[in-house]
Amino acid sequence: MGPRQPISDVAPAISPAPVQTAAAPITAPSGPAMSVDDVPIKANDILNVIVAQKLKKVEEVPLSKSIKDLVRGKSTLQNEILGDLQMEFTSAPEKGEELPLEELDAALGVGLLVNILRVQCRT
Length: 123
Hints:
The chain is 47% helix and 0% strand. The chain is an all-alpha fold.
């Protein structure tokens, strides 16, 4: 029999299992809630959100361009934008895709007001 080797040389090192600790709970700030004024939504806001979302643009959509210019010949995308606008507004002008967004905004603003009044009358 040969000389004995220490256990530390023969057995693999055993490390303790990792201990998971719970993260400190996040608490909401205490005190009175901040008051936020109720501001009506403008047609321009809805128009910008719909167009920017469909175009996947984070930056501001240029109001001087038309939907037709912005979609660059993608008729399916153009039709999706127009369909979404028709769902939000009661009336959309003929050939709205050819109008600069600033003109389209003015035309859609009337439809938004009618749509808001219709919703308010139902409740």
